[in-house]
Amino acid sequence: QVTEMRLNGVELLFHVELFNPNPFGVRFAGVDYEVEVDGTHFANGQTESALDLRGEEKTMTDFTVHVPFASLGESILGFLAREKVDYLLKTNFRMGTEDSFLRVPAQFPGQLILPKVPDVSVRDFSFPSVSTEALTTRLVLEVNNPNDFDVPVDAFGIHVILNHQEILSHTSIAGRRLTAHQSVDIPFEMKVDFKGLGLSVQNILKR
After folding, report:
1. Dihedral angle sign, alpha carbons of residues 160, 118, 80, 6
2. Nearest to 2 by CA among 57, 61, 83, 77
3. Comparing 127 with 6, which gets the higher pLDDT?
4. Is the pTM of this model over 0.85?
């Protein structure tokens, strides 16, 4: 499952069930792992924590894997637009010491439900004030996070066009987090010079 989305990737948590068929316990010194999504290598790593399996019993263990967005073979939005993808967790459980150990391979296939892209809509677009030289505009975006975890946002790539002129482009809002299953209003205020728009205050008031 996806447990966290960061600006550079996502955190995945794998819950793995292991069964030791032997009448005696087994200790693994650590695990090497590799993650494939839709047949493409996404991430790899290892754990150094010891894992003890009791004889003839099942044991649950977790793997946390960071998947960077840079490893995606397609655009981030195109990838997240999909509902779920097939994955394969390849592991090698290490038995012994650093100088001499045995690798026990295992594979765990499954399906990963992908995080959803936040919904964005325009709540309000108004003109708080007008002077003889400039027009003040206020844009309020409503952003809803439909995921079970918070989503960080470092910027909105927006373009506002008024009278065929771009008056705002890519305004940064560094450090904001979208809380899980909640909506938030994000305001933007802009002062637009009438000369830049090719309009006069009389033209504005007549429209």
Report:
1. positive
2. 83
3. 127
4. no
